Amino acid sequence: MIYFIGAGPGDPELITVKGKRLIGEADIIIYAGSLVNPQVLSGAKPEAEIYNSATMNLEEVLNVMKRGVAEGKRVVRVHTGDPSIYGAHREQMVELDKLGIPYEIVPGVSSFLAAAASLKKEYTLPGVSQTVILTRMEGRTAVPEREQIEALAAHQATMVIFLSVGEIETLSERLQAGGYPADTPAAVVYKASWEDQKIVTGTLTDIAEKVKEAGIRKTALVTVGRFLGDTFELSKLYDAHFTTEFRKGV
Ligand code: SAH
């Protein structure tokens, strides 16, 4: 059995109880060293074999998994945040299926959730936006034509953009070209939940400049939308006059 584990966004306490337990029981740990906080591995057995996948290709990762399983060892594969978001773990699962090796996935706290927590904001405000778009700009990995930034920006929903802060200038221009007014608030969270976390806030007009001044070039999320503002309607859920399944309105 291979366990894919979401390590969380950085703070070593933001891993699930299950993920932490499995790391503690593992004989072999393969972790995404470019982003996973090494402290997340602090509970590993001293004799555990630890591999940093940053320097490995898919075949090398699979070879370590195969050998581990053949030797009856417990193998865990640790991804940053949650593996389902830009984690490249589907291709590993496909190969494990071919080999007949079973696996389980333990979800993690994605960085986009840690970013909302750091910003002390809610992505889905009544009367503002009820939709969160998670996306990226194309880099070396292409993005399908119908998901181009301009097309997504047309909704003026809450947007969280991964893997794109290095091109923040182009990104903010394209968001405006797509339909967000120039005064739409934007916030960039660098290393959400890490000790050296940084937050830069502004609007689509000045966020690029501010991010450059702060020297942020990677490991950051760009969040955009009026959810960052202070105008919104109160929820129905806690409205005194609103009857829910659990509570009668007055
Ligand atoms: N699976 C991860 C995302 C991996 S893609 C998750 O669920 O969060 C890597 C990108 O995620 C980075 O380029 C950056 O845009 C973002 N990212 C990962 N960790 C981050 C953090 N702690 N703070 C801000 N952005 C982060």
TrEMBL record:
The EC number(s) this enzyme carries: 2.1.1.133
Keywords: Cobalamin biosynthesis, Methyltransferase, S-adenosyl-L-methionine, Transferase
Sequence ranges assigned to domain Tetrapyrrole methylase in this UniProt record: 1-207
Domain of life: Bacteria
Cited Pfam families: TP_methylase
Example GO biological process: methylation
Pathway the protein contributes to: Cofactor biosynthesis; adenosylcobalamin biosynthesis
Record-linked CDD domains: Precorrin-4_C11-MT
SUPFAM superfamilies, alphabetized: Tetrapyrrole methylase
The protein, known as: Precorrin-4 C(11)-methyltransferase
Biological source species: Ventrimonas faecis
Gene responsible for this protein: cobM
